[in-house]
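debug: dumping io for the single-chain case to check the tokenizer round-trip. Nothing else runs in this session.
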Amino acid sequence: MLRTERRPASSSRRPRLPSRARLEEGRLGWLLILPVVAVIAVLVIYPLALGFGLSLRSVHYASGTPETFVGLKNYVDVLGDAESRSALVHTMGYVVVAVVLEIVFGTLMALVLDQAFRGRGVLFAILILPWAMPGIVSGLLWTRILNPDNGLLNSLLFQLHLIDHYQVWFSSPLASIVLIAIVHVWGVLPLIALIILSGLQSVPDELHAAAAVDGAGPIAQFRFVTLPLIRPAVAVALTIGTVAALGIFDEIYVLNGTALGTRSIQTQIYLTTFDQLDFGRGTALAFLLAFVTILFSIAYLRGFRRQTV
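debug: decoded output
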């Protein structure tokens, strides 16, 4: 009967340090991260705690009343406010239109940029330009394009005989939300495309070659090989696109001001805090938006994690 010898433990396992050495190593680690923790505490945790405390108080400078502790009353008031609910509906409209367009066209752009062709570097540079522009600059640029009197879009469509008179593009709330969402997509789309492109470039070419040998065409390769492997990148793109759409403000303010028909949650926060000088309710609305943003992010990450496990 053969006796099997027990193999020694792998030499790659980290040797166990003496207790004093481990203690010194832990102290060194804390010393190294202490400056970062201090910066986060001063710039993130302290303002959040201060803002949350403000949201629990009645701080309405326009009324001249003294500050009082009201608990969750500000949250209940903003949830029951008709303007806040309308702004929430508009924000969800921006999110749906923006995220769908960003994922679809971002994936198409990434697939194009994943190919090797002449002028690819120039196309990369042009692609980054809209993303590098501030939201205010993008809004001003598109104001010139969508101007109802002498805008470039009206002039082009009129010259092509696609319209017989100049259009007022922001005449209805639905059309305004779609157009503002498109302007927002124009600025965020490059980032989404680059994120998905990074996922595409991590897919081994051997898998596509093996799928082609098995008879899979380009569409089948993308559906059954590429798409499952880039799901983590798509999850990141979805999260970033949703967070950016939930916080949309600049494009709305420049293109259509504070009109009630296109007002977003961020616009409502701005008006409540700085126009009505109700800092308590404005801060409460901001924390509710942050909570919704966190829920979206967790839902995306958990959903895609289940599909990839």
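debug: round-trip ok. The chain has 13 helices and two strands.
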